[in-house]
## 1
Amino acid sequence: MAVKPLEDRVLVKPIEAESKTASGIYLPESSKEKPVRGKVTSAGPGKRLENGKRAEMSVKIGDTVVYGKYAGTEVEIKGEKHLILRESELLGVIVG
């Protein structure tokens, strides 16, 4: 099953936070924060403008993005959690 987002939406696979600190201490599940980074796995064609053309998406498949802690809608695809977000809910693209 493949999911193709519509309009200006993107499908993001969250990147889980590290379960161990830099000093080697393992964190319990309850202390982990919700992921706010993820990899774009699919993107829609872009928002339709008033002139009928589509706006170009500012992210592409494979980009690592940052989004708000409670942004988007969670969906499960092939047993894995993903988020569907509007392009405007993305806070930035991680470069490098």
## 2
Amino acid sequence: MLLDEPSLGLAPLLVEEIFAIIQRINREQRTTILLVEQNARLALGVADHAYIMENGRIVLEGSPATLQDNADVREFYLGLSDVGQRKSYREVKHYKRRKRWLS
């Protein structure tokens, strides 16, 4: 099953319900699901394997735990600092200049 941005434009409670259904289908029906989602925290929370794409190419891949521990993913996609505290939008808005994997 392919799902493209199932959370886009939905209220948070609906998003929670949809992702619970996605997990249930995957677990109970043993259905493989390809999920395209910009909400990295949400996607990594339900994935068995993850890919991060930039400009149409895969720049990182691995288990959700591995990606969540990656400093770039934490900063650019999860909005966390090196010590795990949330960063403000102002602190991460210029991230494209510092992306190490695109240099």
## 3
Amino acid sequence: MRTPLLVAFHGIDHSESVEQCVRAQVARLDKMGGRITACRVAIEAHHAEAASRRRNLKIRIGVRVPGTELLVTHDPRNGVRADHLRAGIVRAFSRMERLLKEHRARLHG
């Protein structure tokens, strides 16, 4: 990746362990060889629930590859509960992996 990974936390405290989980998932994507040039990940709480430990969270991933940017938003009907955040991150990155594979298949016929 040419541009350093950007991980942002909105409405929740920064967590080193969550960031490490994100970094591990990005490293997995990078090994796919999809020529990723940049990756941004945002984990955000809905404002009305910012004070609650059981708040619902949204995970957004943006991956730039030559010629386009692929976006995934993981926001189940009721959001991702904070205590299930790592599982939500893995699911969101699985969706991004599928998008990268589809993009690569479109490029190479």
## 4
Amino acid sequence: MTKLLFFVLLGVAVVAWFKSQGRPRRDLGKAKPSKVEDMVRCQVCGINLPRSEALLGHGRIYCCDEHRRQDQG
């Protein structure tokens, strides 16, 4: 019975070792901070999009040039 338990534990240890060798190690202390960007809403369709992708027209926010022309025309 002791031999069986020994071989089972040995097998688990070998499997765990092989799994750890296949993964690239990551250093969590040197993780790059992610950029967080404000989201804004299009005045015509209501879609949310990042502020950097939004178009401005007469103080209002739009998702595309077509909506900007549609709202002002």
